[in-house]
Amino acid sequence: MYNIAIDGPAGAGKSTIAKQIAERKGYIYVDTGAMYRAMALFLLENHISPEEPEKISEKCQEADISIVYEKGEQIVLLNGRNVNGLIRTEEVGNMASASSVNGDVRKKLVELQQKLAKEADVVMDGRDIGTCVLPDADLKIYLTASSDVRAKRRYDELRAKGEECDITVIKRDIEERDDRDMHREISPLRQAEDALLVDSSDMTIEEVIDRIIGLCDKEGGRHGY
Ligand code: DC
């Protein structure tokens, strides 16, 4: 199997880029953040707060999270229910960041991620893919951008959806999330020693994709079709 790991902070463009690389190479795209988001939704629906680690450890055992693909799109199932339409809110994202510090949550989701990567050629994005989930990935990318650029991209995205938002609040949220993801005890976000750094601050999506596909071809990545 050929595995590409893409890690980096919130809003660096990982999912947009990973999805398009998977499409071009004929690989399967695995969005691990969506799994942590589905778990966070489950905890929120059960009125559990991030300040209750024991309850999180206990309750997360009741969440059966699985992934199916329909027309190439990843669908996250939470106890059999398609939750794709419910996990993209700021509330769920912040809860995902907070609850993903929990070792029991991580253990459960990492096992699922490793199983998916054994079964198919994948492009997997997240925070700990190159360092923990797929330490032997064929190609590891650490994709980042300045927090100003990431906040502006998120702001434009929300405005395009017609949502009212304040760029200073978005930037503060992004920096808080980075801080938590980078400083947690278990599998914090960091660049793996053998990961290649791509800073997308001054690059277009196409440029980033071409750079990564170029690296993949150089490293011997095959087409999955
Ligand atoms: O990439 P995202 O914004 O959808 O991820 C939501 C949160 O999930 C992120 O703030 C931290 C957590 N996460 C993680 O801990 N490990 C991963 N591999 C992916 C996401």
Q: What characteristics describe this protein?
A:
single chain; 225 residues; alpha/beta; three-stranded antiparallel β-sheet; 17% strand
Describe this structure as you would to a colleague.
The chain has 225 residues and is an alpha/beta fold. It contains nine helices and eight strands. It has a five-stranded parallel beta sheet, sandwiched between helices. A hairpin with a 2-residue loop joins strand 3 and strand 4. Helix 1 packs across helix 9 and helix 7 packs across helix 8. The protein is globular and about 50 Å long. The two termini are 13 Å apart. It binds 2'-deoxycytidine-5'-monophosphate (DC).
Topology record:
Elements: E1 3-7, H1 14-25, E2 28-31, H2 32-45, H3 53-59, E3 65-70, E4 73-78, E5 81-82, H4 90-99, H5 103-119, E6 122-126, H6 129-133, E7 139-144, H7 147-160, H8 167-183, E8 196-199, H9 205-218
Helix pairs in contact: 1-9, 2-4, 2-5, 7-8
The chain binds 2'-deoxycytidine-5'-monophosphate.
Residues 10, 32-33, 36-37, 93, 96-97, 100, 126-129, 177, 181 line the site of 2'-deoxycytidine-5'-monophosphate.
Helix content: 40-55%
Give a short account of the largest sheet.
5 strands, parallel
Can you tell me the overall shape? globular
What is the rounded Rg? 17 Å
Q: How do the strands of the widest beta sheet line up side by side?
A: 2-6-1-7-8
- What is the typical, i.e. mean, pLDDT? 93
Order of helices and strands: EHEHHEEEHHEHEHHEH
